[in-house]
Amino acid sequence: MLDTPEILLGLVILSALAFDFINGFHDTANAIATTISTRALSIRAAIMMAAVLNFVGALVSTHVATTVGKGIVDPAYVSQIIVLSALAGAIFWDLLTWYYGIPASSSHALIGGLIGAVFSARGIDPLQWAGISKIIIAIVISPTIGAIAAFALIIGVYWGFRKVHPSPLNRQFRKAQVVSAAFMAFSHGSNDAQKSMGIITLALFSHGAISSFHIPTWVILSCALAMALGTATGGWRIIKTVGRDLVDLQPVHGCCAEVAGSAVIMFATFLGIPISTTHVITAAILGVGMSQGRRKVNWGVGLRIVWAWILTIPASAAAGYLAYRILYPFLVKL
Q1: Alpha carbon 129 to its chain's center
Q2: How is residue 235 annotated by DSSP?
Q3: What is the 3-state secondary structure (H, E, C) of 148-190?
Q4: Which end of the chain, N or C, is more open, meaning fewer C-beta atoms within 10 Å of its C-beta?
Q5: Can you list the positions of beta strands (E) in the chain?
Q6: Mean pLDDT over all residues of the chain?
Q7: b/e per residue 38-68 (b: at least 16 CB within 10 A)
Q8: Rounded Cα distance, 245 and 81, in Å
Q9: Is there a contact between 70 and 203 (Cβ–Cβ < 8 Å)?
Q10: Collapsing DSSP states into helix, strand and coil, what is residue 211?
Q11: Are 112 and 314 in contact (CB under 8 A)?
Q12: Using CA atoms, how far apart are residues 183 and 53, in angstroms rounded to an integer?
């Protein structure tokens, strides 16, 4: 029987950890796609490195988790069924885009799912428009900065090493790319793992398990572990799209994309802004690709990615809205 709040809370927590696991294998490509495509690391070594550093990165901060838990919706208006519906909407969109190999944002899927579920249950009033506006602005600005930074960095490298033959240059950058990929994996964990931390804490606060909104240590560790385990399972469909189909990358390109993307993500984490690591690294790859000329970019794949970016929040919000309509009458009867 689901007539006790504790059981429903447990279901929410398990769903949040499942989302974090899915986020891990969905977003594995963020950290390692370029490293695999340039053969800087084997698939197995790259995935294991990403898993470990995703876990470590998730432990460094809770600023983003607090934004997700308090900055999108007023916690006083949130019920367990709302949180569960939000997770259902986000998981649906994540699995759909993973199936088609599209690097959409797990972060924005969760935010969209939460908006849709809250609107379905409570209407528009509980939504925190200041926090939502900050996230929407970041959707536009963060990938733009990532692309510009990566483009500027690769041009600077070309100029600084203009007298070096490409072959020895790429050999050196293949080694450097191991470090840049590690930085990317760490930064991914620092931002993305916190989304589920915020959602679980929101559920705990709604249940009354915690009296003030703070992220418990066990929540931090469990979300970090769930994302690391998800990352360890791979996610080859999206790795192929990001690392091979969008731009033909050499080690120097992969290294510059990862350095630029990581810097943008870490800055956003410091500010407590839940950006899309997927958007940032994909835009950074596009930026280094543009340095080789427009014809070096597969614009068909790029357009498909952009459409996924545009649709993620509305689609996951619609899924969260419908999930609440389906789950509420079912759960209240049990």
Answers
A1: 21
A2: -
A3: HHHHHHHHHHHHHCCCCCHHHHHHHHHHHHHHHHHHHHHHHHH
A4: N
A5: none
A6: 84
A7: bebbeeeebbbbbbbbbbebbebbbbbbbbb
A8: 40
A9: no
A10: coil
A11: yes
A12: 8
What is the pTM assigned to this prediction? 0.83
Of the two residues 166 and 64, the one the predictor is more confident about is 64
Helix segments in 58-105, DSSP class H: 63-70, 80-99
CB atoms near residue 166 (< 10 Å): 11
User: Rounded to whole angstroms, what are the CA distances from 223 to 158, 188, 191, 195, 312?
Assistant: 40, 13, 12, 9, 22
State how far the Cα of 299 lies from the Cα of 135, in Å rounded to an integer: 26
pLDDT tens digits for 265-310? Answer: 999 999 888 888 878 888 888 888 877 776 666 666 667 777 877 8
The HSE-up count of residue 87 (CA atoms within 13 Å, CB side) is 29
